[in-house]
Amino acid sequence: MPGNYVVEETTAPSGYSAPSPDYQVVAVPSGATATVTFEDTAVATTGRITVTKTDNANPAKALDGAVFTLFTDNAGSPGTSTGLSCTTTGASGQCTIADVTPGTYVLEETTAPSGYDLASPDYQVVTVTAGSTATPSFVDTPVTVTPTTYEVSVDKTDNSNPANPLQGAGFALYQDNSGTLGSAVPGATCSTGAAGTCTIADVPAGTYFVVETSAPSGYRAAVNQTVTVGADRTDPTLTFVDTPVPTTGSATLTKLDDASPGNPLGGAAFTLFTDNGGVPGTSAGLSCTSALPAGTCTINGITAGTYFVVETTAPSGYTTAAPQLLTVVTGQVVEATFVDDPVATTGTGGTGGTGGTGGSGGTTGSGGTTDTNNGGSTSSGGSGGSG
Q1: For a surface tag, which of 62, 72, 303, 322 has the fewest beta carbons within 10 Å of its beta carbon?
Q2: CATH of domain 47-142
Q3: How far apart are CA 137 and CA 143, in angstroms?
């Protein structure tokens, strides 16, 4: 019968759902056939998981390269792999695992993006329903890169006895500012122990100055040293040698003759005497003897003070020089020059001449006179008188 009718899909085919709305109004003309089309939707039997990966320090930053793998649920922990996985892309930081049978699973981040640590924890429990998409998100933290560090060791020894380790020397690390001493490296210090060694740890690669900031008691600090750390990926060791602080001074004495310029003389013996009110007092028990070619000698180990240096023995053929007053300073060398005169020599007088023989009625000549000059000569005798 012609007219308007409502056609309703009251039962959908198996595996499909009726459209919405599930009915249509149709006009049936007289003597003709009306055609109505219904489009049913296949009923979903699986679900999907779309995971999002972002940066912990910058949540708006999507991360690519994270790999996620789906596991069965083992009481909230990853069980066995389902064989389903996906990898996030940079544009969205997302990836999707499709065709997942409805159920409860564990999604694990099995590979973190380059430069990042895995999420903590690195898995989540996900429930998948048919026709729906689960949307878990994971947040990764950038990897904290800990630079490789090294140790700088110091050996501390005695200049006068290299086998003697020195305790109590303090060292510090300073930046190298284009070859000059820069700022101190915070916390980079050490002090030598009984073995004469100490170590500055956690030193990043670079070039530094190692400075002896405090010397052991009785010693002078050594000069600064530079060290390049990390070039050969080994821990360097530096040796610092300290010089004992002098407690005495020295006197270097030079012996010359009276020529101009003076010639050096060997064999002059000098002795140190105390100053007794401007004159030599008692012997200090220290002496030396000049030697060629320089004609010098040195008295060491002199306690600071004022002394007389007395030439106790002159070189052969010379007289001793007058004593000299010297002031000796700790750690310094005082110098003095002594000039000796040759010993004077005396000549022998000549022999008197013989008088002449007197002739008859003659007079006897007088004897010759003696020359008293050095190496004097003898005068001739007087002549005899006439006969």
Answers
A1: 322
A2: 2.60.40.10
A3: 19
